[in-house]
């Protein structure tokens, strides 16, 4: 894999971990997801005046992506509502690369070599291992939360394949990215008003600065990923994005002073091993 693309996607993963750390404030999960979607749309709006809109051929992919992203936010927030963030998030993000890889081969016909499969599998295993806390902690996770986490993994694979293909069809990853974030923001506001009523707006207003910062980081993270999927296999890019869990663990240990457990060290080793295999592909 090209070293520039490889480094760029790792930077995107760090941004992804960053916006997840930024949004740990008092809002409940669905309101938080809506606020981030709005913040991303606001950050993306000026880009339209620079990059314009994507070609009409990519609009069906945009529409499909907006639907899948709405399902993603719904599944993720329900998973957070019923389960623990530290376990739900890695399950969702760890399963997604395997589903994306299978989809890219079966649906898009993108070939993956043995090293790529080994790297994706090892990385995904390390990401899932990040959810383990030793002892019986994992056994206590709510089965309903696991179900929502796995549903979220399906939607992650869905929007990765959709946006990777849509950006390629558009011929301009930057225009496609701006359009997708604006579309997602509008869709989430409409969905939130239908689901929760105008009161959700009042809840979000005090946190608008954090929403804008988190939304901007989210935009940068996925913007890089969408561009990378136009120049590299979608499955590889999707897998590399999930190293955000590793960056998130580093933030938790270094900044939040959480204990460095042996299970996290082992998971980190697996993730780095997976990265190495992917880089050698």
Write the layout of secondary structure elements.
Elements: H1 3-22, H2 29-51, H3 59-82, H4 85-106, H5 114-129, H6 143-170, H7 173-196, H8 199-204, H9 208-229, H10 234-241, H11 244-254, H12 262-280
Helix pairs in contact: 1-9, 1-11, 2-3, 2-7, 2-9, 3-6, 3-7, 4-5, 4-6, 4-10, 5-10, 5-12, 6-7, 7-9
Rg estimate, integer Å: 18 Å
Helix content: over 70%
Unreliable stretches covering 5 or more consecutive residues: 134-139
The structural domain count equals 1
Q: Which descriptor suits the 3D outline?
A: globular
Which structural class do the helices and strands define?
A: mainly alpha
Sheet-strand content, in percent, reads under 5%
Count of helical regions = 12
Output the helix-strand order: HHHHHHHHHHHH
Question: Please, could you describe this protein's structure?
Answer:
It is a single chain. The chain has 281 residues and is mostly helical. It has one domain. The protein has twelve helices and no strands. It has helices spanning 3-22, 29-51, 59-82, 85-106, 114-129, 143-170, 173-196, 199-204, 208-229, 234-241, 244-254, 262-280. The chain is globular, with a radius of gyration of 18 Å. Residues 134-139 have low confidence and may be disordered.
